[in-house]
C-alpha cells in the first residue's frame, strides 16, 4: 500500500530555505510514502462568501476545490515553514483557512501533521511552529510531541540546495521516519 503525504511550504520565494528543506525531506520518506509538494501560493485570499450557501452571486474558486480534494486524499501533511513576524506566513494561514471550510467537510480533520520550522536566526521558527500547532489542534490533527524540529540559522544548514550537515540530516531524517510511522498507523483509523 502507498500512502500520500502533502508537503506545504511556508515560503513563496523560489530559492527559500523552507523549499530547500522540504525538497530534502522528500528524499527521506520511505518507499511506502509518496510525498509531494502542494503549491499554495496561487490560492485566492479566503472569503467566507465562497462557502456561504446564502451568497448566490459568488462561486467557490476551482483552486479551492482542487486544493481541498488534494488534502482530503492525503494520508498526512508535512508543513515546512519559515517564521514571519513571530507567526506563520500569511499565505500558509490562508491555505489552512481554505482547508477548514466548509465546516461540514473540513479537509484537515484527523490528518497526521508534521511540522518543521526554521529561521535565519537562532530560534528556528519557534513562534511560527507554536502558532501552527495551535491552528492545527482545532482540526484534531495528531502531531509528534517530540522531537520538535526548529532549524536555527538555516542558511548554514544548506549546501547545494539541500540540507547538508550530517548531524542535521540524521535528525530530520529520523523525524521523517517517525512522522511516516504516524501516517501509516493513523491512515486506517481515518477511513
Describe this structure in words.
- The chain is built from five helices and seven strands, in the order βαβαβαβαβββα.
- The strands form two sheets. It has a five-stranded parallel beta sheet with strand order 2-1-3-4-5, sandwiched between helices. Strands 6-7 form a two-stranded antiparallel sheet.
- It starts with a strand and ends with a helix.
- Helix content is 34%, strand content 17%.
- The protein has 191 residues and is of the alpha/beta class.
- The radius of gyration is 16 Å and the shape is globular.
- The model has no long low-confidence stretch (mean pLDDT 93).
- It has a single domain, classed as Flavodoxin domain (Rossmann fold), CATH 3.40.50.
- It comes from Corynebacterium yudongzhengii.
- GO terms for molecular function: FMN binding; oxidoreductase activity.
- This is NAD(P)H-dependent oxidoreductase.
Amino acid at each position: 500500500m502507498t500512502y500520500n503525504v502533502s508537503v506545504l511550504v511556508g515560503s513563496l520565494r523560489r530559492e527559500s530555505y523552507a523549499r530547500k528543506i522540504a525538497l530534502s525531506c522528500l528524499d527521506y520518506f520511505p518507499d511506502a510514502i509518496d510525498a509531494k509538494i502542494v503549491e499554495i501560493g496561487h490560492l485566492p485570499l479566503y472569503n467566507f462568501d465562497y462557502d456561504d450557501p446564502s451568497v448566490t452571486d459568488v462561486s467557490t474558486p476551482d483552486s479551492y476545490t482542487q486544493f481541498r480534494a488534494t488534502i482530503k486524499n492525503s494520508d498526512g501533511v508535512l508543513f515546512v515553514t519559515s517564521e514571519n513576524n513571530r507567526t506563520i506566513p500569511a499565505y500558509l494561514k490562508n491555505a489552512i483557512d481554505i482547508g477548514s471550510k466548509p465546516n461540514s467537510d473540513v479537509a484537515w480533520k484527523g490528518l497526521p501533521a508534521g511540522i518543521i520550522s526554521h529561521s535565519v536566526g537562532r530560534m528556528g521558527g519557534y513562534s511560527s511552529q507554536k502558532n501552527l500547532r495551535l491552528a492545527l489542534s482545532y482540526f484534531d490533527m495528531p502531531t509528534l510531541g517530540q522531537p520538535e524540529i526548529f532549524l536555527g540559522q538555516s542558511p548554514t544548514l544548506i549546501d547545494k540546495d539541500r540540507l547538508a550537515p550530517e548531524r542535521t540530516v540524521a535528525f530530520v531524517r529520523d523525524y521523517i521516519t517517525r512522522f511516516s510511522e504516524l501516517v501509516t498507523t493513523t491512515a486506517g483509523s481515518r477511513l
